[in-house]
Amino acid sequence: MPRRSTALDRATPEAIALTALRILDEEGPGALSFRALADRLDVSHATVQRRCADLAGLLDLCTEHLAAQLPEIPAGTDWAEATERRFGALYRLLTAHPGLLVLRGGRPWLGRQLLARLVEPALADSVAAGMSAAEAMTVYRRMYLLTLGSAAFVDHRDPGAVTAASRAALAALDPAEFPVLSGGLAEVLPPLTDHEVYYGALRQLIEAARPAV
Description:
CATH topology of one domain: Arc Repressor Mutant, subunit A
Number of strands: 0
Structural class: mainly alpha
Number of helices: 13
Helix content: 55-70%
């Protein structure tokens, strides 16, 4: 007869991360709690807390789960191509889970998976391409901040709602005080939810930082 699964068997770090992200995606950041997780996993509140200690630990589990999905770029890949692939993948992961960004706020992302999948290889590639360690870190930081800010600016999962809310706010402005915003809605609104705005900015940063051959 197979051994019955224990509470800790059900509440693995992977299961906790998946369930937490599901709550964030379905119900928003305000719905995430140890009790909500425990109910979905059918374990006790204490079991969840034993796995991740506090909210910071829980968010770290979620971040590590997502970071493990970042691509491993083959050695010898062109620096610019590798850089765009890495940060583009990070952008797609972050825009898929905006609730996680809300809760993490300005906390640093220093989990082993993120360091191994993104930070270390990005820096190593830049150094191998001819940058100093300081130059490589500066380039990384610029692209990371662009990616994080672009993902956090709006909820890209519901562009229609973002556009509607922005349209209502801009339509209420006094045209005499805000002539461009109130008079150019058709031109001003689309870039708010256009992913190409991010990708275009990323490519500009990559081109500006491309090491001299």
